Amino acid sequence: MSEKVDSPAQRGFKFEREVASIYRALGAEVVHDVAIAGNQIDVLAHERTTAGTLIRTAIECKAYSSQVGIEVVRSFAALANLLKSRGLIERAAIVSLNGYTRNSREAAAEFGVDLIEIDDLRKKIEKQPELLIKAKEEISVQDHISDVEIKPKRLFVVMPFAPEFNDIYILGIREVAENLGFVVERADEIEHIEPIVDVIQEKIRSCDAIIADTTGRNPNVFYEVGYANGVNCPAVLICREGDDIPFDLAGVNFIKYGSIVNLRERLDKRLRAIFDVDQP
């Protein structure tokens, strides 16, 4: 009988928990898998300097079988800069299982992202195994409590990646969901080494609902809407006013928007209704 092999998502989760446990063992206050301003952060560490200054570090964990590349650094740096500008973190770091490319190291130096290898973290705590064991137990309990508590709703957005849709996504969808306390992701924001179709399917299976913009009849969008329907994932369908809706979807209650302002108002009401969020 062959041994069960962890999925990429399971390997990633275990790696995140190891990183969180090491930081906890080294004295930091740690939260694993936390939502900050509508973004999922693998590990958030709170540490104090000798002068008593609080340093909050957002940590991205990458259990890749190969070196982390430049696109991962650029993507995380953009998120880190957003969180820094809002006063939510002071530092950003990536922890890798198998190191970094030269280009990624150069980009990290430019963008102010710390690059850490897991072996270096392990060495810091190897002479104090009892602290690591205790930290792992604490993180495990914390994760269990988080599973029991009400977690932020997670939305996955499917839409064309053309530049003309960027404002629709950022201003019309992302900000609305963020204001409701939800976590939002779009496929092009996800760093991955697995086939993108597998990644998208996993995100759809694990989210609370998808928001799909069918404007332009993009075949990938319709495939993802169909997949969501097949796994019983709720879908909020939107499209621009005047856009043709396929016959099979004619009975669906689309949000038809003529402007971003119009979309924001209608999407806010729809999400509040779906997830039973009180009106402001």
TrEMBL record:
<protein>
    <recommendedName>
        <fullName>Restriction endonuclease type IV Mrr domain-containing protein</fullName>
    </recommendedName>
</protein>
<dbReference type="InterPro" id="IPR011856">
    <property type="entry name" value="tRNA_endonuc-like_dom_sf"/>
</dbReference>
<dbReference type="InterPro" id="IPR011335">
    <property type="entry name" value="Restrct_endonuc-II-like"/>
</dbReference>
<dbReference type="InterPro" id="IPR007560">
    <property type="entry name" value="Restrct_endonuc_IV_Mrr"/>
</dbReference>
<feature type="domain" description="Restriction endonuclease type IV Mrr">
    <location>
        <begin position="12"/>
        <end position="123"/>
    </location>
</feature>
<dbReference type="GO" id="GO:0003677">
    <property type="term" value="F:DNA binding"/>
</dbReference>
<dbReference type="GO" id="GO:0015666">
    <property type="term" value="F:restriction endodeoxyribonuclease activity"/>
</dbReference>
<dbReference type="Pfam" id="PF04471">
    <property type="entry name" value="Mrr_cat"/>
</dbReference>
<dbReference type="InterPro" id="IPR052906">
    <property type="entry name" value="Type_IV_Methyl-Rstrct_Enzyme"/>
</dbReference>
<dbReference type="GO" id="GO:0009307">
    <property type="term" value="P:DNA restriction-modification system"/>
</dbReference>
